[in-house]
Amino acid sequence: MFFNLSKILWFFAEPLNFSILLIGLTFFLLLLARRRFALVTAAGAFLILGLGAWTSVGALMMHPLEDRFQRPASLPEKIDGIIVLGGGLEGGVNLVRGGYEMNSSGDRFVEAAVLAARHPQVKVVVTGGSGNLLLKGEGDGVTAPRLLTALGVSPDRLIMESQSRNTYENAVFTKEMVKPKPGETWVLITSAFHMPRSVGIFRTVGFDVVPWPSDYRTSGDEGIGVTHDNPQDSLQNVSIALREWIGLVAYRLTGRTGELLPSP
């Protein structure tokens, strides 16, 4: 229920989709000769798209998320496992073509391969099924072995979890699978903007992890003003950050995290 509802609500709340709906509503209001209301909806759509594409608002929304957890200067000599959250592979493409195409969050798997090379005896867990409500795609837990073995990680080190659909299920299913013991050190890899919610969820289910953020979308130096990024990436940053902030609130209200913005 939570999964389906979250996907439906986000479809309407996503800035680009919401702007398109406002534009459609504008034409409908014009047909009804409600020009004043049509002007308001048209202005709303332009404001969302203009601020998102041409200003640094997306980067500013990202900063508190990406800066919340810093990557450790080093890891202990002995770690017990590496956990990679799915979301970095093109499930729809890989389902048809059988490859391992990465999307903009693919750095998660690059970091996993780097850490796996530094700690050659450690198991690597990839958790993630298909998180789409309607679109068909191959879960990252299915695709990842092809990618990681190509990057030099031995297949016998890989543990795949391919049933989870969201971050909460990532944490629950992974804990059930690996059964972490007190005192063990497990490293969690996900996008920097996604790390606060991920750490909060893992803590809630009783699985302590060492955050290893990757896939940064901002430099951290952006100020208020016109964006220095391309409009597509700027608008995408707004969408990603808004989704993450909504997710933090929703997960806190439903008891899936213990804090609104988990602290280091």
Automatic annotation (TrEMBL):
Keyword line: Membrane, Transmembrane, Transmembrane helix
InterPro entries documented for this protein: Cell_Envelope_Assoc, DUF218, Rossmann-like_a/b/a_fold
Transmembrane portions of the chain: 12-32, 39-62
One Pfam family from the record: DUF218
Any one GO cellular component localisation term in the record: plasma membrane
Keyword set includes S-adenosyl-L-methionine: no
Residues of the DUF218 domain: 80-247
Gene Ontology biological process terms from the UniProt entry: Gram-negative-bacterium-type cell wall biogenesis; peptidoglycan metabolic process
Keyword Transmembrane helix attached: yes
Name of the protein this chain belongs to: Uncharacterized SAM-binding protein YcdF (DUF218 family)
